[in-house]
Amino acid sequence: MPREETDAPEATNSPDTTDVADAAGGASAARPRRPSHWRMLGRDRAAAVGAVIIAVVALVALFGRPAIGDRARRQELDASLRPPSLDDGVYGLLGTDVLGRSMVARLVEATATTLSVAVPAVLCSLAIGSALGLWAGYHGGRRESVAMRVADVILSFPSLLIAVVVLYVFSPSALNLVLILAVTRIPVYLRTARAEAAELRSRLFVDAARTFGTPSRMIIYRHVLPIALPTLLTVATLDFCFVMLTESSLSFLGIGIQPPDVSWGLMVAQGRQYLQTAWWITVLPGLAIVLTTVSATVLAAWARIATDPAQRWRLTLPKRRRPRSAPVPPEMIP
Amino acid sequence: MTTTSPPTRSDADTPALDVEGLCVELSTPSGTVRAVDGVSFSVRRGRTLALLGESGCGKSMTALSVVGLLDPAAAVTGGAVRVRGDDTLRMSPAQRRRLAGPVLSIVFQDALTALNPVQPVGRQIGEPFRIHRRLSRRQAREKAIELMTRVGIPEPRQRARSYPHQFSGGMRQRLLIAMAVALAPDVLIADEPTTALDVTVQAQIMRLLRDLQDERDMAVVLITHDLAVVAQRADDVVVMYAGTVVENGPVRDVFAAPRHPYTRGLLDSVPEDSVRGRPLPAVPGSPPELSAVPAGCVFQARCPLVRERCVRERPVPRPAGEGRSAACHFSEELDRA
Q1: Chain A residues inside the 8 Å CB shell of B115
Q2: Nearest-Cα residue of chain A relative to residue B176
Q3: Contact at 8 Å (CB) between A114 and A263?
Q4: Considering its fold, how many domains does chain A have in total?
Q5: How many helices (H) and strands (E) does chain A have?
Q6: pTM (global) more than 0.90
Q7: Residue A78 included in any domain
Q8: Least CB-CB distance to B101: which of A8, A140, A212?
Q9: Which residue ranges form the domains of chain B, and what is each CATH number?
Q10: Whose CA is closest to A311, among A298, A330, A297, A326?
Q11: What single-letter DSSP state applies at residue A312?
């Protein structure tokens, strides 16, 4: 990422101009050190909680599987549909499902599966869609039209339908699932990035860069991307929950994650028929989805402010302030 | 390493920038209008030329077409822009890019929007070096700090890490100038560099520009509507009105004895010699709409000397004294008036 200078801890951070006197040597205002990201995170309690949740989810996804062994698949039919209780050790803490499998173990296993589908899918579509969108928006003209028509074609197909067709024809593996989710979500980033780039290309600092001969790709990389990136990342975190839900729909239809593998969405789908008798089978993975997406969104809103040099000071005020959440682009609203 | 024709640099006879018969047309919903109509001027190294005129007379449009930043709605339809003898209008984009920076550069009016708000200024000022000289990030940074010292930014090493919004207006303008002169261009275009600043800072910025010009032997094209700036700062002046050049010549001569009624009107409207209690003389009326520029003289509607010939026939620039020209049929009469 071009947004660097994390190694530059002493830049000034005052909200207004520090040098009142323009005369040489006139500026001698105090220069507080730039606050670290940790401290800025501490100022925003919601974002801090979100960061902790995301960190826990990531750790579980990375290291959970070896810890639980095969407990997510071990069936104990006489322990079927046990409610959450403290009597059955760690693995009985959240109850069992209809086949007597430990909910704790299944949730851990599902975390890894869900993230291994959603994260690569979001990253792929973010990278491809943003690159194309910035390029199209910056250059405009025919390149823009072509890119936008491609986006329209993808968007005009119901994404679930493409997924069903493709996954029916090819084998429903995790890789295919990632690819199809990535492709269907590209237009979201493409359009956002194009809009940002089209606006930024008319800014004077882009003209200024052109006056000393900066090539287009350099302008896109150095001047357009850093400004568009926070918006794109916010879109990506919102899209993350969309991808998780799509994955669960596909798993529910039987063409996504295949049992005995399990994902959060699949768990919700499988538990639906026991909703009246065993709520925990559905509610717990649902809660996991909600917590993760909300945390990601709150963290994205914080990152938006923390990465904006002109807004950063808000997070250094002693008084606690809730950042205004980022606006939702229209294509994200289902 | 980036020059296209090194020998012309020493050639004192070739102007650093030579604009000839430049025409720019704008497409508007109501049709095509000519925003710049046959503008010609030239400027040598070490000299300053002022483009003087009121808002909308086409001075900025001229500057933008010289540096190749015209809006897509505008197109250069004629003329030539020769930089050290080579016509930039007939160059490929890649050739132009090689020229931009080491040979030709521009300082914009609005310094805040001309700087990227999310980049530390040190990096932005170092960018020309990274692009044209392929310096590393660290080397470019050192160069940027040098430049910041040169343009009078206090504590440049610390300030290089600050962002544009943390600087005052005058400091931002200094930063822009630093960026524009980074590669020691032959021609520097300054598009109203001081309009957004207060008078004290204006003077500092103008002094800085002059010092840099002397140091680097640049040709400066100063775009302005400020008569005082022109009088103090420029060697030659080009007075523009409704997209055309109405008068052209050395500042001292033009200001002492204008040969075009418009220049005369502008100079008369300076409050310096006016008597208290009496209304300020002004040029009556307002400039024509670009879509309704009359067939004859562009200034006819506001001119005190207007005759029947002015309506019929557009005056071409005629020599009016040494190194001067004026586009008026009756320029001789101004001496008597």
Answers
A1: 205, 208
A2: A208
A3: yes
A4: 1
A5: 11, 0
A6: no
A7: no
A8: A212
A9: 6-234 (3.40.50.300), 260-336 (no CATH)
A10: A326
A11: G
- B162 chain-A contacts, CB cut-off 8 A: 11-12, 18
Please give the single-letter amino acid code of residue B268: D
Q: Which of B66, B97, B162 to mutate to test the interface with A (most CBs of A within 10 A)?
A: B162
Half-sphere exposure of B336 (CA within 13 A, CB side): 5
Q: For tokens 């067939």, name the residue.
A: B295
Q: Domain with A224 in it: what CATH number?
A: 1.10.3720.10
- Chunked mean pLDDT (size 10), chain A, 334 residues: 40 40 38 66 84 90 80 74 73 74 85 89 94 92 91 85 82 84 91 92 86 86 90 87 82 78 83 82 86 88 82 68 56 58
Which among A22, A25, A203 is the nearest to B171, CB-wise? A22
Report the residue of chain A nearest B182, measured CA to CA: A212
Whole-number Å distance between alpha carbons of A239 and A237 = 5
> Distance from B255 to chain A by nearest Cα, in Å?
32
Shortest Cα distance, chain B CAs vs residue A80, angstroms: 57
Pairing of strands B104-107, B86-87: unpaired
Distance from CA of B38 to the nearest CA of A (A): 24
Domain that holds residue A248: 120-332
Task: Classify strands B244-250 and B325-326 as parallel, antiparallel or unpaired.
Answer: antiparallel
Query: Mind listing the pLDDT tens digit for each residue in B85-110?
Result: 888 888 888 888 888 888 899 998 88
Q: Name chain B contacts of A209, Cβ cutoff 8 Å.
A: 116, 127
Chain A residues close to B180, C-beta within 8 Å: 211-212
> Complex ipTM, two decimals?
0.71
Q: How many CB pairs under 8 A join A and B?
A: 130
Tokens of A62: 């990375």
Q: At which residue do the structure tokens 């409207």 appear?
A: B269
pLDDT per position as a tens digit, A45-56 = 888 899 999 999
